[in-house]
Design goal:
The longest helix has 17 residues. This protein is globular. Helix 4 packs antiparallel against helix 7, helix 5 crosses helix 6 and helix 6 runs antiparallel to helix 7. The chain has nine helices and four strands. The chain has a four-stranded mixed beta sheet. With 268 residues, it is α+β, with helices and mostly antiparallel strands. Keywords: Disulfide bond, Oxidoreductase, Redox-active center, Signal. Belongs to the thioredoxin family. DsbA subfamily. It comes from Corynebacterium nasicanis. This is DsbA family protein. InterPro entries: DsbA-like_N (IPR049564), Thioredoxin-like_fold (IPR012336), Thioredoxin-like_sf (IPR036249), Thioredoxin_domain (IPR013766).
Protein backbone atom coordinates (compact mmCIF):
# COMPACT_ATOMS: atom_id res chain seq x y z
CA UNK A 1 0.00 0.00 0.00
CA UNK A 2 2.96 2.31 -0.49
CA UNK A 3 0.89 4.35 -2.94
CA UNK A 4 -1.39 5.68 -0.20
CA UNK A 5 0.61 8.90 0.26
CA UNK A 6 0.95 9.46 -3.48
CA UNK A 7 -2.79 9.10 -3.74
CA UNK A 8 -3.37 11.66 -1.00
CA UNK A 9 -0.91 14.12 -2.50
CA UNK A 10 -2.46 13.80 -5.91
CA UNK A 11 -5.93 14.35 -4.51
CA UNK A 12 -5.22 17.12 -2.03
CA UNK A 13 -1.91 18.84 -2.76
CA UNK A 14 -1.71 22.58 -3.12
CA UNK A 15 0.28 24.19 -5.96
CA UNK A 16 3.63 25.40 -4.67
CA UNK A 17 3.92 22.78 -1.94
CA UNK A 18 7.23 20.93 -1.99
CA UNK A 19 5.89 17.66 -0.59
CA UNK A 20 3.22 18.14 2.07
CA UNK A 21 -0.49 18.37 1.46
CA UNK A 22 -0.49 22.08 2.16
CA UNK A 23 2.15 24.62 1.24
CA UNK A 24 4.55 25.74 3.94
CA UNK A 25 3.70 29.38 3.35
CA UNK A 26 -0.03 28.77 3.86
CA UNK A 27 -1.51 30.73 6.76
CA UNK A 28 -4.85 30.55 8.49
CA UNK A 29 -6.68 32.22 11.32
CA UNK A 30 -8.00 30.21 14.23
CA UNK A 31 -10.47 27.73 12.69
CA UNK A 32 -14.15 28.50 13.06
CA UNK A 33 -15.34 25.02 12.05
CA UNK A 34 -14.27 23.52 15.37
CA UNK A 35 -17.45 24.69 17.10
CA UNK A 36 -19.51 22.61 14.68
CA UNK A 37 -17.73 19.33 15.32
CA UNK A 38 -18.87 17.38 18.37
CA UNK A 39 -15.96 16.89 20.78
CA UNK A 40 -15.04 13.41 21.89
CA UNK A 41 -15.95 12.36 25.41
CA UNK A 42 -14.16 9.02 25.88
CA UNK A 43 -11.12 10.44 27.62
CA UNK A 44 -10.17 7.68 30.04
CA UNK A 45 -6.45 6.90 30.04
CA UNK A 46 -5.30 3.37 29.12
CA UNK A 47 -4.97 0.94 31.97
CA UNK A 48 -2.17 -1.53 32.63
CA UNK A 49 -2.66 -5.24 32.26
CA UNK A 50 -2.74 -7.78 35.04
CA UNK A 51 1.07 -7.65 35.19
CA UNK A 52 0.99 -3.90 35.81
CA UNK A 53 2.48 -3.11 32.39
CA UNK A 54 1.02 -1.21 29.46
CA UNK A 55 0.79 -2.51 25.91
CA UNK A 56 4.06 -1.05 24.65
CA UNK A 57 4.32 -3.50 21.75
CA UNK A 58 1.40 -1.85 19.96
CA UNK A 59 2.15 -1.29 16.28
CA UNK A 60 0.36 -0.40 13.12
CA UNK A 61 -3.01 0.78 11.88
CA UNK A 62 -6.42 0.50 13.45
CA UNK A 63 -7.54 -1.98 10.78
CA UNK A 64 -6.11 -3.67 7.73
CA UNK A 65 -5.23 -1.27 4.94
CA UNK A 66 -6.05 -2.74 1.54
CA UNK A 67 -6.24 0.36 -0.65
CA UNK A 68 -5.44 4.07 -0.63
CA UNK A 69 -9.06 4.76 0.28
CA UNK A 70 -8.37 3.22 3.70
CA UNK A 71 -6.44 6.25 4.93
CA UNK A 72 -8.62 6.67 8.03
CA UNK A 73 -7.59 3.17 9.12
CA UNK A 74 -4.10 4.51 9.78
CA UNK A 75 -5.57 5.88 13.01
CA UNK A 76 -5.71 3.19 15.70
CA UNK A 77 -8.24 4.62 18.15
CA UNK A 78 -7.16 1.86 20.55
CA UNK A 79 -8.22 2.16 24.18
CA UNK A 80 -5.00 0.49 25.37
CA UNK A 81 -2.65 2.72 23.36
CA UNK A 82 0.03 4.05 25.75
CA UNK A 83 1.49 6.28 23.03
CA UNK A 84 -1.69 8.32 22.44
CA UNK A 85 -3.32 11.28 24.10
CA UNK A 86 -6.84 12.60 23.63
CA UNK A 87 -10.38 11.31 23.39
CA UNK A 88 -10.88 7.95 21.67
CA UNK A 89 -13.86 9.42 19.83
CA UNK A 90 -12.30 12.76 18.94
CA UNK A 91 -13.56 13.87 15.52
CA UNK A 92 -10.00 14.09 14.14
CA UNK A 93 -6.98 11.90 14.82
CA UNK A 94 -3.43 12.98 14.05
CA UNK A 95 -1.14 9.99 13.56
CA UNK A 96 2.45 11.13 13.86
CA UNK A 97 5.39 9.18 12.45
CA UNK A 98 8.56 10.35 14.18
CA UNK A 99 12.13 9.49 15.11
CA UNK A 100 13.79 10.43 18.41
CA UNK A 101 17.04 11.15 16.53
CA UNK A 102 15.33 13.54 14.12
CA UNK A 103 15.96 17.29 14.72
CA UNK A 104 12.82 18.22 12.77
CA UNK A 105 10.74 15.95 14.99
CA UNK A 106 12.22 17.78 17.96
CA UNK A 107 11.31 21.10 16.34
CA UNK A 108 7.69 20.00 15.99
CA UNK A 109 7.59 18.74 19.59
CA UNK A 110 9.00 22.01 20.90
CA UNK A 111 6.91 24.39 18.80
CA UNK A 112 3.61 23.12 17.40
CA UNK A 113 2.70 20.16 19.59
CA UNK A 114 1.83 22.16 22.70
CA UNK A 115 -0.56 24.31 20.67
CA UNK A 116 -2.28 21.14 19.46
CA UNK A 117 -2.55 19.82 23.00
CA UNK A 118 -3.95 23.08 24.39
CA UNK A 119 -6.25 24.14 21.55
CA UNK A 120 -7.54 20.82 20.24
CA UNK A 121 -6.72 17.78 22.38
CA UNK A 122 -7.85 19.42 25.63
CA UNK A 123 -11.16 20.31 23.97
CA UNK A 124 -11.83 16.77 22.73
CA UNK A 125 -11.43 17.73 19.08
CA UNK A 126 -8.17 15.93 18.28
CA UNK A 127 -6.43 12.76 19.38
CA UNK A 128 -2.66 12.45 18.92
CA UNK A 129 -1.20 9.03 18.17
CA UNK A 130 2.52 8.25 17.95
CA UNK A 131 4.19 5.82 15.55
CA UNK A 132 7.89 4.95 15.70
CA UNK A 133 9.72 5.50 12.43
CA UNK A 134 13.41 5.16 13.36
CA UNK A 135 14.97 6.00 10.00
CA UNK A 136 18.20 7.57 11.32
CA UNK A 137 20.20 4.44 11.99
CA UNK A 138 20.88 2.18 14.99
CA UNK A 139 20.80 5.02 17.53
CA UNK A 140 17.28 5.87 16.37
CA UNK A 141 16.20 2.26 16.80
CA UNK A 142 17.73 2.21 20.29
CA UNK A 143 15.81 5.38 21.12
CA UNK A 144 12.56 3.88 19.89
CA UNK A 145 13.07 0.84 22.13
CA UNK A 146 13.71 3.13 25.09
CA UNK A 147 10.53 5.03 24.32
CA UNK A 148 8.63 1.76 24.42
CA UNK A 149 10.32 0.86 27.70
CA UNK A 150 8.90 4.08 29.16
CA UNK A 151 5.51 3.36 27.62
CA UNK A 152 5.45 -0.05 29.30
CA UNK A 153 5.42 1.80 32.62
CA UNK A 154 2.81 4.35 31.52
CA UNK A 155 5.23 7.25 31.06
CA UNK A 156 5.65 7.57 27.31
CA UNK A 157 4.35 11.11 26.90
CA UNK A 158 6.45 12.35 29.84
CA UNK A 159 9.51 10.56 28.47
CA UNK A 160 8.97 11.96 25.00
CA UNK A 161 8.71 15.47 26.44
CA UNK A 162 11.92 15.05 28.44
CA UNK A 163 13.86 13.77 25.44
CA UNK A 164 12.71 16.39 22.97
CA UNK A 165 13.12 19.20 25.51
CA UNK A 166 16.76 18.16 25.84
CA UNK A 167 17.28 18.33 22.06
CA UNK A 168 15.48 21.57 21.25
CA UNK A 169 18.76 23.42 20.64
CA UNK A 170 20.52 20.59 18.77
CA UNK A 171 20.53 21.01 15.00
CA UNK A 172 21.79 17.52 14.16
CA UNK A 173 21.26 14.01 15.46
CA UNK A 174 21.77 13.88 19.25
CA UNK A 175 23.08 10.27 19.16
CA UNK A 176 21.77 9.42 22.60
CA UNK A 177 23.03 6.44 24.56
CA UNK A 178 21.37 4.32 27.20
CA UNK A 179 22.63 6.64 29.93
CA UNK A 180 20.80 9.51 28.23
CA UNK A 181 17.66 7.39 28.03
CA UNK A 182 17.86 6.59 31.74
CA UNK A 183 18.26 10.29 32.49
CA UNK A 184 15.14 11.11 30.46
CA UNK A 185 13.27 8.27 32.16
CA UNK A 186 14.23 9.69 35.54
CA UNK A 187 12.96 13.13 34.54
CA UNK A 188 9.76 11.54 33.25
CA UNK A 189 9.08 9.78 36.52
CA UNK A 190 9.41 6.23 35.20
CA UNK A 191 9.01 4.27 38.46
CA UNK A 192 11.26 1.24 37.88
CA UNK A 193 14.48 2.45 36.29
CA UNK A 194 16.18 -0.95 36.45
CA UNK A 195 13.31 -2.52 34.53
CA UNK A 196 13.39 0.41 32.11
CA UNK A 197 17.10 -0.12 31.42
CA UNK A 198 16.58 -3.82 30.87
CA UNK A 199 13.57 -3.37 28.58
CA UNK A 200 15.43 -0.76 26.53
CA UNK A 201 18.47 -2.96 25.93
CA UNK A 202 17.59 -6.66 26.17
CA UNK A 203 15.61 -7.12 22.96
CA UNK A 204 12.17 -6.85 24.55
CA UNK A 205 11.04 -4.38 21.90
CA UNK A 206 13.25 -5.35 18.97
CA UNK A 207 10.39 -6.96 17.04
CA UNK A 208 7.94 -4.15 17.75
CA UNK A 209 10.35 -1.45 16.57
CA UNK A 210 11.23 -3.40 13.43
CA UNK A 211 7.54 -3.90 12.69
CA UNK A 212 6.78 -0.22 13.26
CA UNK A 213 9.56 0.78 10.87
CA UNK A 214 8.26 -1.64 8.26
CA UNK A 215 4.70 -0.42 8.69
CA UNK A 216 5.64 3.19 8.00
CA UNK A 217 7.53 2.20 4.86
CA UNK A 218 4.65 0.02 3.72
CA UNK A 219 2.21 2.92 3.62
CA UNK A 220 4.76 5.18 1.96
CA UNK A 221 6.14 7.22 4.87
CA UNK A 222 9.87 7.66 4.27
CA UNK A 223 10.67 10.83 6.20
CA UNK A 224 10.11 12.26 9.64
CA UNK A 225 8.12 13.85 11.02
CA UNK A 226 5.10 12.93 8.94
CA UNK A 227 1.46 13.26 9.91
CA UNK A 228 -1.85 11.80 8.84
CA UNK A 229 -4.43 14.38 9.96
CA UNK A 230 -7.84 12.83 9.44
CA UNK A 231 -7.76 12.03 5.72
CA UNK A 232 -4.92 14.45 4.94
CA UNK A 233 -1.17 14.02 4.92
CA UNK A 234 1.37 16.63 6.05
CA UNK A 235 5.11 16.12 5.67
CA UNK A 236 7.65 17.86 7.85
CA UNK A 237 7.69 20.20 10.85
CA UNK A 238 5.39 22.68 9.18
CA UNK A 239 4.35 25.95 10.88
CA UNK A 240 1.49 25.80 13.36
CA UNK A 241 -0.77 27.62 10.91
CA UNK A 242 -0.54 24.70 8.50
CA UNK A 243 -1.76 22.29 11.15
CA UNK A 244 -4.57 24.68 12.10
CA UNK A 245 -5.72 24.91 8.50
CA UNK A 246 -5.71 21.16 7.89
CA UNK A 247 -7.42 20.42 11.21
CA UNK A 248 -10.12 22.99 10.40
CA UNK A 249 -10.70 21.29 7.04
CA UNK A 250 -10.89 17.85 8.62
CA UNK A 251 -13.22 19.02 11.40
CA UNK A 252 -15.46 20.60 8.77
CA UNK A 253 -15.70 17.25 6.96
CA UNK A 254 -16.93 15.64 10.16
CA UNK A 255 -19.34 18.49 10.86
CA UNK A 256 -20.83 18.16 7.36
CA UNK A 257 -21.12 14.40 7.64
CA UNK A 258 -18.58 13.74 4.88
CA UNK A 259 -16.51 11.74 7.39
CA UNK A 260 -18.04 9.61 10.12
CA UNK A 261 -16.31 9.23 13.46
CA UNK A 262 -16.26 5.49 14.25
CA UNK A 263 -18.04 4.32 17.35
CA UNK A 264 -15.57 3.33 20.05
CA UNK A 265 -16.38 1.44 23.24
CA UNK A 266 -16.09 3.30 26.51
CA UNK A 267 -13.23 2.18 28.71
CA UNK A 268 -14.71 0.31 31.67
Amino acid sequence: MAFIIGYLLGRQSVPGAEAPVVAQETTATAPTATAEATPGTHTAAPRPGADGRFNATLVGPGAEITSADDVLKVHRRAADDPFAVGALDAPVVISEFSDFECPFCSRFANTTEQMLLDDYVARGLVRLEWNDLPVNGPRAEDAAKAGRAAAAQGKFREYKHALYSATKDISGHPEHTIEDFVRFATEAGVPDLERFRADATDGTFDAAVAEAKSYGATIGVNGTPSFFIGESYVSGAQPSEVFQQVIAEELAKVARGDVTVPAVPAVS
